[in-house]
Specification:
Blueprint: H1 6-22, H2 30-44, H3 50-74, H4 79-122, E1 127-128, E2 133-139, H5 144-161, E3 165-172, H6 178-193, E4 197-201, H7 205-213, E5 222-224, H8 227-233
InterPro entries: Bact_StressResp_Reg, STAS_dom, STAS_dom_sf
Keywords: Phosphoprotein
Protein name: STAS domain-containing protein
Length: 241
């Protein structure tokens, strides 16, 4: 790191000033030091990795001790004084390291949450066919959390796109048991309140047998074996290449 860098010099001088105050009263500078660490970490987190940030802190430690060493030598302080200074300064520098770690972890969790939310939304794609019809291809298991996501996304998109029909294609759903069926019914009933007719497609023969054997009743719900048949039922043409 370049000591001539103006920003670095400013941050270093601020830290040295705070640590200098700590030699007089370490309790009073604790909050000021935390504010400095939070501000510094907030800057670093958007520019460098945590490992580099900790290396920069190690450099701060070296610079600070160089400054104090010169001061102690010039004033001919005893070695015991140096030890006393170390007992005050080192824990404060450790607090800065901990604050750096906390800010980086918080930032990392925030990024992960954003990425996870984006991934979840991609797992429930609403694909418009025309101005009034859209298809939602569902792939993978439908648990309670995902069913809630399907409900939220389909209602939001149906309202935004002003849909009349929404086709839920469950070809990629491995199992449809009582819980999954109940979750699908909730989505269908909620969309019905918005004036959207929901059609289910892609129920495979083995899934149909399971549904019958466990007594799940799909009465009143429009279902088709595949997507082309469903589209044809609402007077849409599917072009097969």
């Amino acid at each position: 790191m370049n000591l001539e860098d103006e920003s670095f010099n400013k941050h270093s001088s601020n830290l040295i000033e705070i640590l200098g105050k700590s030699l007089i009263d370490s309790q009073q500078v604790s909050e000021e030091l935390k504010d400095w660490a939070t501000s510094e970490a907030g800057y670093l987190v958007n520019n460098i990795s945590l490992s580099r940030a900790l290396r920069s802190l190690a450099f701060y430690r070296t610079v600070i001790w160089d400054v104090f060493t010169v001061e102690l030598e010039q004033k001919q302080f005893a070695a015991i004084t140096m030890l006393d200074v170390s007992k005050i300064i080192d824990p404060l520098l450790d607090e800065i390291s901990a604050e750096f770690g906390r800010v980086y972890e918080e930032y990392s969790n925030k990024l992960m949450k954003i990425a996870y939310t984006a991934l979840e939304e991609l797992s429930v794609p609403v694909v418009p066919i025309n101005k009034s019809v859209a298809v939602v291809p569902i792939i993978g298991e439908i648990d309670t959390h995902r069913s809630q996501l399907i409900l939220e996304v389909t209602m939001e998109e149906s309202s935004r796109l002003k849909l009349e029909y929404l086709i839920l294609d469950v070809t990629g759903v491995p199992v449809i048991d009582t819980m999954v069926a109940d979750n699908l019914f909730k989505v269908i009933n909620a969309l019905r309140l918005l004036g959207v007719e929901t059609i289910i497609t892609g129920i495979r023969p083995e899934i149909a047998q399971t549904i019958v054997s466990i007594g799940v009743n799909f009465k009143g719900i429009t279902t088709f074996a595949d997507l082309p048949t469903a589209l044809a039922s609402i007077d849409l043409k599917v072009v097969h290449k």
